[in-house]
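Subgroup meeting minutes
Present: P.N., E.W., G.H.
Scribe: E.W.

1. P.N. recapped why we're keeping a running log of single-chain structure predictions: easier to compare across weeks, and new members can see raw inputs and outputs side by side.
2. G.H. added today's entry (339 aa).
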Amino acid sequence: MSRKNLITISLICMAAMLSAQTQLPNSDFEQWTSTAAGNAMPKYWHSFADADCQLKGIYAWGCPCMLKNHSNRVAGHSGYGCEIYSAFIGGVALVNGVMTTGQMQFATPDTKSADNHNYTDKNNTAGHNAAIPFTGRPDSVSFWCKFVMKNPSNVAEAKFHLHGNVAYKDVSTHQSATPQKGKVGNAFCAMKDPNDQKWHKYQYKFTYYNDQNQQVSTATHPNYILVTFSTNKITKGGSNGDKLIIDDIKMIYNKRLASLEVDGFALPDFNPDVLDYELYADANEMPVITATAQSPNATVRVEQASTENGRTARVTVTHDDGEWVYTVRFMPLAQMAGR
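Output recorded in log:
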């Protein structure tokens, strides 16, 4: 293969990676731009250290609310997680530990004001590259958390916003159904402290919306994702020193079939996690295969062929991050009789 062809293939692969962003970058928190005390920052994530603060007095002091944490969630795992924790600003004002993929903005001491928010800085006005391109439409999101809370009744929060080509905002008082320009879908996650100081896996579904803020099944592709984690779902909630450690965020794209039918009848012993099947049929017939995907954002393609090697049906379920292929092979009835 010539060097020119290799370069062309490389460029095509790079373009495909840029055009299909279906997972969060650095979702396992192994890459850090800084680990200094008071300035710890995992790559692609932001917090108080690089916030746009327009306040004066003690509110302008800022606070160190993020740390690189040795993650021993899995035996033998030597990687890292990200720890956020609540703290007092100047020993007076309690703030939640927060991290976000967007730009943090503080414009007023009123913590419930919409002027204080995280937003996708798609034009990089703050110079922190606080915008994550994203084109996937995941069915759900999963992540691992470990709590170290002063009060076991505390509830932490994670919010995942999928949105269009706008400077989308995450305001603390917004709910999942709150209307907003450019809204495509979201997952609002409330994680109660299990009070055992162990790692727990959480999984939450995405809800999708149209331009009229009505829930829909089939969604349009977003342009960006805006994510926020907080030690408490209540602004200024919790206690000083509450900690939430996060690791391994994963977007889940369901490529399973809901049904697989042969000539209008359910395939015997069908299991959506089993990809290969054999059926017996008359040698002169090609049974018709139909199928339906579990996810409304996945597509199904059925290809049936009869060759010298036999009769086969391939059912391809395609989602935003790839595909699953189910195969049904039709064996002659004569072979069944010979068994």
